[in-house]
Amino acid sequence: MTIQPKKTKYRKYFKPRGLPNISTKVHKLTELTCFALIAMESNYLNSRQIEAARQNIRRKVKREGKLEILIFPDIAISRKASAARMGKGKGKVDHWIASITAGQTVFLLYGIDAEQGIPALHSGANKLPLKVKIYQL
Protein backbone atom coordinates (compact mmCIF):
# COMPACT_ATOMS: atom_id res chain seq x y z
CA MET A 1 0.00 0.00 0.00
CA THR A 2 1.51 3.30 -1.03
CA ILE A 3 1.62 6.35 1.19
CA GLN A 4 -0.17 9.37 -0.28
CA PRO A 5 -2.20 12.34 0.97
CA LYS A 6 -5.95 11.92 1.41
CA LYS A 7 -6.66 15.38 0.08
CA THR A 8 -4.60 18.14 -1.56
CA LYS A 9 -5.32 21.76 -2.35
CA TYR A 10 -4.60 21.27 -6.07
CA ARG A 11 -4.77 18.07 -8.11
CA LYS A 12 -1.51 18.60 -10.00
CA TYR A 13 1.59 20.60 -9.10
CA PHE A 14 4.59 21.93 -10.97
CA LYS A 15 7.50 19.55 -11.20
CA PRO A 16 10.05 20.27 -8.44
CA ARG A 17 13.27 21.85 -9.71
CA GLY A 18 16.57 21.51 -7.88
CA LEU A 19 17.32 19.63 -4.70
CA PRO A 20 16.66 20.99 -1.21
CA ASN A 21 19.52 22.31 0.92
CA ILE A 22 20.81 21.16 4.30
CA SER A 23 18.19 20.61 7.00
CA THR A 24 18.31 22.61 10.22
CA LYS A 25 15.74 20.49 12.05
CA VAL A 26 17.04 18.64 15.11
CA HIS A 27 15.26 15.76 16.80
CA LYS A 28 16.12 15.19 20.43
CA LEU A 29 16.30 11.46 21.10
CA THR A 30 14.81 11.02 24.56
CA GLU A 31 14.27 7.26 24.73
CA LEU A 32 17.04 5.14 26.23
CA THR A 33 17.29 2.77 23.26
CA CYS A 34 16.62 5.00 20.30
CA PHE A 35 18.04 4.70 16.79
CA ALA A 36 17.64 7.21 13.96
CA LEU A 37 18.22 6.89 10.23
CA ILE A 38 19.55 10.28 9.07
CA ALA A 39 19.94 11.26 5.41
CA MET A 40 23.44 12.42 4.49
CA GLU A 41 22.48 13.89 1.11
CA SER A 42 19.50 15.66 -0.41
CA ASN A 43 17.23 13.70 -2.72
CA TYR A 44 13.64 12.76 -3.45
CA LEU A 45 12.06 9.55 -2.13
CA ASN A 46 8.89 8.13 -3.62
CA SER A 47 6.24 6.33 -1.61
CA ARG A 48 7.30 2.88 -2.85
CA GLN A 49 10.86 3.35 -1.57
CA ILE A 50 9.64 4.54 1.83
CA GLU A 51 7.22 1.62 2.09
CA ALA A 52 9.88 -0.93 1.05
CA ALA A 53 12.28 0.37 3.71
CA ARG A 54 9.51 0.36 6.34
CA GLN A 55 8.52 -3.24 5.56
CA ASN A 56 12.13 -4.39 5.66
CA ILE A 57 12.80 -2.76 9.03
CA ARG A 58 9.60 -4.17 10.54
CA ARG A 59 10.43 -7.65 9.24
CA LYS A 60 13.93 -7.56 10.79
CA VAL A 61 12.74 -6.47 14.24
CA LYS A 62 9.87 -9.00 14.12
CA ARG A 63 7.33 -6.17 14.63
CA GLU A 64 8.69 -5.27 18.08
CA GLY A 65 9.45 -1.76 19.28
CA LYS A 66 8.10 1.42 17.70
CA LEU A 67 9.00 2.71 14.23
CA GLU A 68 8.22 6.30 13.30
CA ILE A 69 8.36 7.59 9.73
CA LEU A 70 9.20 11.29 9.85
CA ILE A 71 8.77 12.00 6.14
CA PHE A 72 5.63 12.02 4.03
CA PRO A 73 5.35 11.98 0.22
CA ASP A 74 3.12 14.97 -0.51
CA ILE A 75 4.39 16.14 -3.93
CA ALA A 76 2.46 14.69 -6.88
CA ILE A 77 4.39 13.72 -10.02
CA SER A 78 2.30 13.39 -13.16
CA ARG A 79 3.17 11.43 -16.29
CA LYS A 80 1.54 11.07 -19.69
CA ALA A 81 1.24 7.71 -21.41
CA SER A 82 4.23 6.79 -23.57
CA ALA A 83 2.15 6.54 -26.77
CA ALA A 84 0.24 9.80 -26.18
CA ARG A 85 0.54 12.60 -28.71
CA MET A 86 1.47 16.16 -27.80
CA GLY A 87 -1.16 18.41 -26.27
CA LYS A 88 -4.43 17.41 -24.57
CA GLY A 89 -3.30 18.70 -21.17
CA LYS A 90 -1.14 17.43 -18.35
CA GLY A 91 -0.95 13.70 -17.62
CA LYS A 92 -2.36 11.76 -14.67
CA VAL A 93 -0.71 11.67 -11.25
CA ASP A 94 1.75 8.79 -11.46
CA HIS A 95 3.35 8.72 -8.02
CA TRP A 96 4.06 10.81 -4.93
CA ILE A 97 7.47 11.95 -3.71
CA ALA A 98 8.91 13.42 -0.52
CA SER A 99 11.69 16.00 -0.53
CA ILE A 100 14.59 14.94 1.72
CA THR A 101 17.27 17.39 2.84
CA ALA A 102 20.73 16.42 4.06
CA GLY A 103 20.71 15.94 7.81
CA GLN A 104 16.99 15.16 8.02
CA THR A 105 15.82 12.21 10.10
CA VAL A 106 13.94 9.68 7.99
CA PHE A 107 13.10 6.88 10.46
CA LEU A 108 13.11 6.61 14.26
CA LEU A 109 13.20 3.19 15.91
CA TYR A 110 12.95 2.84 19.66
CA GLY A 111 11.99 0.34 22.34
CA ILE A 112 14.36 -2.32 20.99
CA ASP A 113 17.95 -3.38 21.77
CA ALA A 114 21.01 -2.53 19.65
CA GLU A 115 21.71 -6.03 18.31
CA GLN A 116 18.30 -6.02 16.61
CA GLY A 117 17.85 -2.32 15.88
CA ILE A 118 21.06 -1.46 14.04
CA PRO A 119 20.96 -4.37 11.53
CA ALA A 120 17.28 -3.64 10.89
CA LEU A 121 18.03 -0.02 10.01
CA HIS A 122 20.96 -1.15 7.83
CA SER A 123 18.66 -3.41 5.81
CA GLY A 124 16.09 -0.62 5.52
CA ALA A 125 18.79 1.81 4.40
CA ASN A 126 19.71 -0.55 1.55
CA LYS A 127 16.26 0.10 0.06
CA LEU A 128 16.82 3.87 -0.09
CA PRO A 129 18.62 5.63 -2.99
CA LEU A 130 20.70 7.93 -0.79
CA LYS A 131 23.52 7.80 1.73
CA VAL A 132 22.28 7.53 5.30
CA LYS A 133 23.81 7.40 8.75
CA ILE A 134 22.51 5.40 11.71
CA TYR A 135 22.60 7.42 14.88
CA GLN A 136 22.33 5.75 18.28
CA LEU A 137 21.62 7.57 21.53
Task: Tell me about this structure.
By secondary structure, this protein is an alpha+beta fold. Helices cover 19% and strands 28% of the residues. It has helices at residues 47-60, 114-125; strands spanning 34-39, 43-46, 66-69, 75-79, 92-100, 105-110, 132-136. The strands form 2 sheets. A 4-stranded antiparallel sheet has the order 3-6-1-7, with helices on one face. Strands 2-5-4 form a 3-stranded antiparallel sheet. Helix 1 packs antiparallel against helix 2. The longest helix has 14 residues, at 47-60. It starts with 33 loop residues before the first strand and ends with a strand. 20% of the residues are buried. The mean pLDDT is 89.
Q: What is the mean pLDDT? A: 89
Q: What does the radius of gyration come to? A: 17 Å
Helical amount: 10-25%
Distance between the termini: 31 Å
Tell me the number of helical segments per DSSP (H or I, 4 or more residues long). 2
Biggest β-sheet: count, sense, barrel?
4 strands, antiparallel
The structure class reads: alpha+beta
Overall 3D form:
elongated
Major β-sheet strand ordering: 3-6-1-7
What's the helix-strand series?
EEHEEEEHE
Q: Give the total of beta strands.
A: 7
Please mark out the parts with pLDDT under 50 across 5 or more consecutive residues, or reply none. Answer: none
Beta-strand residue fraction: 25-35%
GO cellular component, one term: mitochondrial large ribosomal subunit
Family: Belongs to the universal ribosomal protein uL16 family.
InterPro entries: Ribosomal_uL16, Ribosomal_uL16_bact-type, Ribosomal_uL16_CS, Ribosomal_uL16_dom, Ribosomal_uL16_sf
GO biological process, one term: mitochondrial translation
